[in-house]
Amino acid sequence: MNVKVYEGEELEALIERAKKELGDVEILYYEVEKKRSFIPFFGKKRYRLFVMPRPKVEEGDREDKDREELVEIKKEIEELKGLLASVTSSAAPPQPLPEHIDKEQVFADKRIFLEFSGDAVELIQLLIKKGVNPEIAEEIVRDSCGLDIETEKLDLNTATFREAVLKGVEGRIKFTGEFKVEDGDKRVFAFIGPTGVGKTTNLFKIASKFVIEQELRVGVITTDTFKVGAVQQARTYASILNIPFFVVTDSKKLKETLSGLENLDVVLIDTVGRSHYDYWRLGEIKATLSGASISMDLILLISCNYDTSEAVEVVNRYRSFFSISSLFFTKVDETSKPGIMVNLPVITGLPVSYVSTGQRVPEDIKLLTPEVVTDYLVGA
Q1: Is the pLDDT confidence value at 30 over 80?
Q2: Average pLDDT for residues 324-330, to the nearest whole number?
Q3: N or C, which end of the chain has less CB nearby within 10 Å?
């Protein structure tokens, strides 16, 4: 056995040195010796690393090995099917894998164990249970991993799950921060999104923040004359906040209304909810909003109840009509899987702003930050 020994004060540097000199290596074990120091607890560690070069594998052989691993994974799935079928009568025909068992998840779990170990595996599985896509969960956790010498796989190098997730979230999601208006400036926010995501209620939560917390002059315009009671609901909220409220039905009226609100700091526009598959209606909303003579922030509201793939479809179809400024998540209190708050911004690259936590106005709203997103995934 051709064993090589490397000594030094940094284990990872020794591993890199071994790989540089020998190529692909197998780590046999390592020893740690702590040097004495005149200052207690400050003695340096010295490592002795024992490795041996692995036999070279030709490219074709490597591909064969990878193919064999995939075959093994599929074989395990088939064995699971057989185990489930064995509990039925031997005379009965073979039973399909039950719907509640996700074959893709079985495959993902196998892949995770090939690369990660220990706490890293546990954290990835926790994130997946919270609705985070497996690939994104792995990305988030990988940032806080180092090489485990014993298993030669990745494991966490942070003290807590929360630290690991926070680091991954900070590196992958953009956050808008509070909606603010600079002195002497004027901003227009339009709230868009599918039917039933809570545009009107959450628009007035933001209006309340502008009025109460920032003491700004605020006005609200609604273009939603389609939904029964929508105008009356919005008018009631505006009356409580003592802010001007207007109803418009076309781009010309919107332009006239905005031109008469020059004395306001902020104008919030509520739009009618439309299916993301209804291109004709989305075009109508775009035509109406085109009447605004100044640029506006377009806030797309997404329910946390949505499946991630459907939410991505919503974003893509709305994006074909509107230049979306940020994602505003709603109804997080109605789901046990808030992973969409990570999946959607990572997949689309859009920044996130707020999350609605209930129906009460103005209390049930939170500004999204890396800490808030992390708390929803792994707890405070």
Answers
A1: no
A2: 97
A3: N
What's the rounded Cα separation, in Å, for the pair 294 and 188? Answer: 8
Instruction: Report whether 331 contacts 303 (CB < 8 A).
Output: yes
> Please, what is the average pLDDT of the chain?
83
The domain 187-378 is placed in CATH, from the list 3.20.190.10, 1.10.1040.10, 3.40.50.300, 3.40.190.10, at 3.40.50.300
The two structure tokens encoding residue 213: 């917390």
Token pair in block for residue 34 = 């702590």
Residue that wins the pLDDT comparison between 224 and 340: 340
For 7, list phi and psi in degrees, rounded to 5: -125, 145
Note the pLDDT of residue 36. 57
Q: 10 Å Cβ neighbour count for 190?
A: 24
SS3 272: coil
Q: Which runs of consecutive H residues, i.e. helices, occur in 144-247?
A: 161-172, 199-208, 230-241
Higher pLDDT, 88 or 53: 53
Q: What is the pTM of this model?
A: 0.71
Residues β-bridged to residue 31: 48
CA–CA distance, 206 with 268 (Å, rounded to integer):
9
- Percent of the chain past pLDDT 90, that is, above it, reads 49
Rounded Cα gap, residues 342 and 350, in angstroms: 11
